[in-house]
């Protein structure tokens, strides 16, 4: 058998053939999970002006120094500052202005007394403002204030180019008065599963048939990483039907074609033949397990990645080859999955191909440990759902003992947004 391509070589061939997509200007309400095309640097402070963090009275703190319940300080109320107004007066010694949460601090004042520490609170805020307020406890300069620039100062870089926008980011952009952002276009990907044995999940099982899992598995991975799935479905092992579907997809303005199954050496594996006839088959087969029968090339000028049919192989190959391509197309700064080091809790074996074993990663007292999640057959989707990591055995390594250090790709991080 000819020497198989290494995983890293196959990744670099694919990435060299993939272009980063164009950018577009979109409203921030549609920008969740989109990647910024340019860094964002604020020209505004946040908060933009010093404001009150409480409903109460803006005062000079020095006036309240000797305030107590037994001997309240009495100040003259000179005005009212609802949120959204801009006070034109100054608060001098002996004076106070009623102020609402979020309203700008008037000139002269250096703190806010919460309404609960005054006699006005007892009567409520809705009543007409009296001429005087009694203050029952002392406060310090800066109390109940949110100073201008406390959160963010002008000139700060908020996000680098390539950053994937999360809900708080979108809130921040809105608060800075940035209604639109320049982002990379979303990759448009068509998915075609092949196989005479496939049935739609809505149909009852029949002898010899199985439900199409790969279309759904792959579509959800790709959508989660920012792709638009323009087509998804399956056809039988029928050369004409596969060719027709690929032609239709390729003509519809997509950025990437993904096929599942039909790339091995079976008598009905037509995908490679069709790619070769109507484009280029750049490579076929990679030195990995699962996922050896991977194909890459161009079909009518659209890059095509042919994934193996076994569901776990399709999933692993999607993470190892399709995601980096998707990340490059979408303008991400980094393209590969992040790996961490962990120690083996049990011995593991492989056949010498670079192996991606379904595994369980655990943290014990700050150190990572990993063990197999179960039976490693590449058709076993249930075991994949019980895993939270892929344990990587490099090529040529056929076994490792308990305690050996390995690289691991954590899967499905449950915490944090990206
Ligand atoms: N003689 C050889 N046979 C096989 C080899 C080999 O090197 N020599 N490689 C094996 C490996 S490894 C894999 S992986 C598979 C990949 O083959 P294909 O990509 O051509 O896929 P199929 O043979 O059509 O299907 C494999 C397996 O996956 C099931 N399948 C297919 N599509 C779906 C789907 N959409 N949803 C769920 N399951 C699917 C299919 O029923 C088969 O069980 O080839 C080995 N054979
Ligand atoms: O390479 Mo296959 O992908 O082991 O199941």
TrEMBL record:
Q: Name one GO biological process term.
A: Mo-molybdopterin cofactor biosynthetic process
Q: Which Pfam families match?
A: MoCF_biosynth, MoeA_C, MoeA_N
Q: In which pathway does it act?
A: Cofactor biosynthesis; molybdopterin biosynthesis
What PROSITE patterns does the database record attribute to this sequence?
MOCF_BIOSYNTHESIS_2
Q: Which UniProt keywords apply?
A: Magnesium, Metal-binding, Molybdenum, Molybdenum cofactor biosynthesis, Transferase
* UniProt cross-references to InterPro entries, sorted A to Z: MoaB/Mog-like_dom_sf, MoaB/Mog_dom, MoCF_biosynth_CS, MoeA-like, MoeA_C_domain_IV, MoeA_C_domain_IV_sf, MoeA_linker/N, MoeA_linker/N_sf
- State the source organism's domain of life: Bacteria
UniProt family annotation: Belongs to the MoeA family.
The protein's name: Molybdopterin molybdenumtransferase
Q: Which organism is it from?
A: Longilinea arvoryzae
């Amino acid at each position: 058998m000819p020497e198989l391509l290494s995983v890293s070589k196959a990744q670099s061939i694919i990435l060299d053939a993939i272009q980063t997509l164009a950018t577009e200007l979109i409203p921030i309400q549609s920008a969740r999970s989109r990647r910024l095309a340019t860094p964002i640097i604020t020209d505004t402070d946040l908060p933009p002006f010093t404001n009150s963090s409480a409903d109460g009275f803006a005062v000079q703190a020095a006036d309240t120094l000797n305030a107590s319940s037994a001997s309240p300080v009495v100040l003259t109320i000179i005005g009212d500052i609802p949120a959204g107004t801009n006070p034109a007066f100054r608060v001098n010694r002996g004076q106070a202005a009623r102020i609402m949460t979020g309203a700008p601090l008037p000139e002269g004042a250096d703190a806010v007394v919460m309404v609960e520490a005054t006699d006005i609170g007892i009567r409520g805020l809705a009543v007409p403002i009296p001429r005087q307020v009694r203050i029952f406890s002392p406060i310090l300069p800066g109390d109940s204030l949110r100073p201008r620039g406390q959160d963010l100062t002008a000139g700060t870089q908020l996000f680098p180019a390539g950053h994937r926008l999360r809900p708080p980011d979108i809130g921040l952009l809105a608060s800075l008065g940035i209604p639109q952002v320049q982002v990379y276009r979303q990759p448009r990907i068509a998915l075609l599963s092949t196989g005479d044995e496939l049935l739609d999940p809505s149909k009852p099982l029949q002898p010899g048939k199985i439900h199409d899992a790969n279309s759904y598995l792959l579509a959800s991975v790709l959508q989660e990483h920012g792709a638009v799935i323009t087509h998804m479905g399956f056809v039988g092992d029928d050369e004409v039907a596969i060719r027709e579907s690929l032609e239709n997809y390729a003509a519809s303005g997509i950025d990437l074609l993904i096929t599942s199954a039909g790339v091995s050496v079976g008598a009905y594996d037509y995908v490679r033949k069709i790619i070769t006839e109507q484009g280029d088959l750049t490579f076929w087969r990679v030195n990995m397990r699962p996922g050896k029968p991977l194909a890459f090339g161009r079909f009518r000028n659209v890059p095509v990645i042919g994934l193996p049919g076994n569901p776990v192989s399709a999933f692993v190959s999607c993470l190892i080859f399709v995601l980096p391509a998707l990340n490059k197309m979408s303008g991400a700064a980094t393209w590969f999955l992040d790996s961490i080091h962990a120690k083996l809790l049990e011995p593991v074996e492989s056949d010498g191909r670079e192996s991606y074993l379904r595994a369980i990663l655990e943290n014990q007292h700050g150190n990572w440990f990993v063990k197999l999640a179960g039976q490693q057959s590449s058709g076993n989707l249930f075991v994949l759902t019980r895993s939270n990591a892929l344990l990587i055995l490099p090529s040529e390594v056929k076994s490792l003992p308990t305690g050996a250090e390995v690289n691991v790709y954590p899967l499905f991080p449950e915490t944090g947004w990206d």
